[in-house]
Every structure is written in C-alpha cells, then in structure tokens.
Amino acid sequence: MSAPNACRPPARSRSVALACWLCLLATAALAAFLVGLGDSSARAAETAAEARAHASALSTAFREAAAAASPSVVVVRSEVKPRRQPARDRQRGGRGRGPQGENPFRGTPFEDMFPDGMPEGFEFHPPEGHGGPRSGMGSGVIVDAAGIVLTNNHVVEDADEVTVELSDGREFKATEIKTDPESDLAVIKLAGAKDLPVAKLGDSDRLATGDWVIAIGTPFELETTVSAGIISGKGRELGGIRRAQFLQTDAAINPGNSGGPLVNLAGEVVGINTAIASSSGGYQGVGFAIPSNLATWVMRQLIDKGEVQRAFIGVQMGPIDGRMAAKLGLSGRKGVLVNDVVPDSPAAAAGVQELDVITAFDGKAVDGTRSLQEIVERAGFDQPHKLTVLRDGRELTLSITVKPLPKELVDGGDDRPQRGGIDKGERYYSEDFGLEVRDKASLPEDAYEGFEGVIVDRVDPDGVAAAAGIGPGVLIRAVGKVEIHTVAEFAEALDAENPADGVLLKVRTPRGNAIVLLQNR
Q1: What is the dihedral of CA 127, 128, 131, 135, to 10 degrees?
Q2: Following DSSP, what letter does each residue of 232-295 receive, concatenated?
Q3: pLDDT tens-digit profile of 43-70?
C-alpha cells in the first residue's frame, strides 16, 4: 500500500482554493466593469458637454449674424392713392361697381348674389372713409449710408408714397424709386438720410446647398423677425420673373418678408427674399430669394443709370431633355439648344447656327436657358467674349461681341398663322410620325411672312407628332439641316431619316422658332 502524495493538497483544500480564485476573478471583473462604467459615464458626460458647446457656438453664430444685419433691415410701407375710373371703363361694364371698378360687395355674403355689382337702377355710394388709399407693407435693406434701400419691385410697384422705418424707429420718405420688374428688384432713395447702418453684401456664388442662413423682415407686420434655415437648392426658376435664378430656402418666409435680406452666419446679405411656394399663402417650407450677386449688379445699374441695361447675343433657345441629348450625341443635358438666330445680331455675326448647343460663355458653364441668359446679360458691351458650342459633335469656340438688349425686342411674336385658307397644294402623310402636311401657299400671303416650309394640316391624336407638341398650323422649316420649301422636299427629307433614331424638325409657331424631336417613346 503506497503512501499518500505529500505534495498534493486534500480535495477539500483544492475546492476552497478554486472558490477563492473564482471570487478573485469575479471581483476583478466587477471592478473592471465599474471602472468601465465610470469611464463610459465620463465619456458620455464629455460628449454631452461637447454637444452643448457646439450648439452654443451655433446659437452664438445665429445671434451675432442677426445682430450684425438687423440694424440695416427696414420696414417699407407703400401707399396707392385712389384713382378715378376712366370714362370708357365706366361706360364699358363699369355700371354697378365702386369708384375704382371693384365690386362693392366684395368680401361680404352678397358678393355671390351680385357678382356684377349693384343691380341696374341702383347707385353705389361708399361710406365715409371707404375707398381711400390702399397700403402695403414689406421689407428692405439699407445698402448705402446716404439712404439707399434695396427691396423688391412688387413691394413698391405703382406706389404713390413710400415710407421707410428703421429699426431704431426713425422714419424717412422716399424721394426717388427706381425699379426693374424683370428681376423684381427696386432701389429707394430716402429724403434727408445720412450715416445710416449699412448691410454687408456677401458672395452668393459661394453658397452651397445645406449652408445655414437666416431671413430677417416684417412678416405679418411683426418687425425685425428672424427665422433660420438652410439653403435648400440653387438655380430655381419662377415663371413670373424671367431674369433671375433663385436661391431656395426653408427659413420661414411669409407675407411681409419680401424685400428683406437672407443672411449667412457671417452676417452678410446673400439674398433678397422674394417669394414663397404655398397652397395657403403662408409658410410651407419653400421660400425663394434673389442671389445677392444678381441683386448687387441690378442695384448698381439702377443707381448709376436709372435702368438696367442687359446684354444679348440674339438667339432663341430651347432646353435639352434626355431624348434630345441622345439624338444630338451629347453626353449629358447641360447647355442650351439654339432654335433660331436673330438676323443682324451678335450671334449671327459670330457664326452661331441653328442646332448648335451652347455649353459655355467666357468659360462659365451653361446649365440651361436661364443660366445662359443670366451670364450673358451681365457681360461687357462692345468687347469680345468666348462662346463655346457643340456642332455636329465637335466643340467650337466662337468670338462674340454682345450688344445692349433692344427695348423693342420681345420674345416670340405676333405673326400668328391665319386659318381657313384655300388648299392650293399637294399633301403628304407620314404614318410613322402621324402627321399630314400641305403647301404653305394654302395660307394667306402674309402668314409666316419671310419663312419657307410646309404647314401641318392634321396630326394623329395618339401619334408621335402630337406627343411632341406639334399641331395644325405649325410651319415645318427644315428636317434636320435640310431646309424645306415644298411638300415634295419634305417627303424626300423625311423618307431619308430613320424613324427609330428620331428626326429633328425646325418649326415655327406663333411663339417663334423651335426645334422638335420626333421619336417613338
């Protein structure tokens, strides 16, 4: 019988030792957990402190920007005095209406009962004080210490008297108002003003989508109201204003904000608040401001010349959609398509042709029609500029000297084709494109004077031509670059094209020349 191993502890001793080790491990783990918990809490506290510091810094930036810009923001009050209704208007449908031709029941339960005003045999006599001056309120921003205020044209349009109130309560009468309806901007000269607080104008071209901005103005007659948001988009177009690409912002803009500044966090004016997109007439998160660079240019023109002199090159332009880009062999949809070149214009002298695609002016990329217009109109007169075009897939650089836009130059034209002429020529029907044409001689002699081509007589309602917007009465001037004079020439040129690739037509409509792509979708 062997003796027990003296080096091996008894079983109970081993169990106690194991329990001790496990206890030590648990204690260490708990200690580590507590230490980690403490570290986590410390990190969370540190993170929260950093977040508060960032929020506080942003709040400070908003506060300082508002403090820097607010003294230069003004309230603009305009007043339109009552005008006597012209005799011809009183004789033509003016019976039964108020002194300015308005329905005396407007805004009352009787408006629907008497939509044409007072019934025959009755006269309208407004109560004392009724029918007096009409007033409006907007905002503006001081741009010159001698008393020059920049605002919107629609704030002061047709006003007989304009009063401007500063943030410190002082009031001034406007002695001179110069407006530019094309951009919806105006400048006001104040009587007896000097040493006024002036806004700092910033560079709107440096703005990017997502940048913080604040809007300052007088919404709903609440003076010096500040709202914050970001730049939601750039290069927006509004149908009613032809000479501006707008900044879009979600900073609250409401009636009364018009003409007030949109300000960056440096306190610089980067836009003039102008319009809102709303179904209710109030704020819905989509507001628009005229970029400060455009506003500054217009302002300088109005101050120095009393009007805005814009340059032009003399082309009718059209947008480029995906199908048109594919037909022209373009890699994208940037640029504008030349629909027509005005005779004796800078573009004609430079050699610009129909179907050219203008992609840049003086090295500045052209995104679309409004983009080209905005770049060109500020170009210097009587000096050469570089015009980059794509022609038949090749890039060309043309030298062009712009001229002032003639006052009599208007878009489109009134040379509307007369209907009901006698059919004197042959016809041609294209089944592929769903249109039938006839000879131009079937129209009166003065219709489309100076232009050759064939007249669209009818289109299939579900055909390709109808889908492209072509209708009866449109003059087709060319198929691609092949000019058309007769129906036979049109048929020959159209038959030479592959319908699957699409066909470009140069047409003339009552609105002017255009280029249309016929292609099955």
Answers
A1: -130
A2: EEEEEEETTEEEEEEEEE-S---TT-TTPEEE-TTSEEEEEEEEE--SSSS--S-EEEEEHHHH
A3: 777 788 887 888 888 889 999 999 999 9
Q: What is the pTM of this model?
A: 0.65
With contact defined as beta carbons under 8 Å apart, do 89 and 101 qualify? yes
Q: Cα separation of 78 and 162, whole Å? A: 4
Q: pLDDT tens digit string along 272-289?
A: 999 887 766 677 788 899
Tell whether domain 200-305 is in CATH 2.40.10.10: yes
Distance from C-alpha of 20 to C-alpha of 13, rounded to nearest angstrom:
11
Interval 119-175: pLDDT, tens: 444 444 433 334 445 578 899 999 999 999 999 999 998 888 999 999 999 999 999
- Those residues with Cβ within 8 angstroms of residue 360's Cβ, 6 or more apart along the chain or in another chain: 366, 386, 387, 388
Q: Which two tokens stand for residue 428?
A: 């041609």
* Contact between residue 372 and residue 356 where contact means Cβ atoms under 8 Å apart: no
Tokens of 359: 């992609």
Q: Which residues are catalytic?
A: 154, 184, 258
What's the gap between Cα 434 and its chain centre? 36
Distance (Å, whole) CA 93 – CA 5: 129
Q: Does domain 312-404 have CATH number 2.30.42.10?
A: yes
Over residues 16-29, the pLDDT tens digits come to 666 666 666 667 66
Q: Where in the chain is the domain with CATH 2.30.42.10?
A: 312-404, 427-518
Q: Please give the Cα distance from 512 to 520 (Å, whole number).
A: 25
Q: How far apart are CA 468 and CA 414, in angstroms?
A: 23
Q: Quote the tokens at residue 286.
A: 């989509």
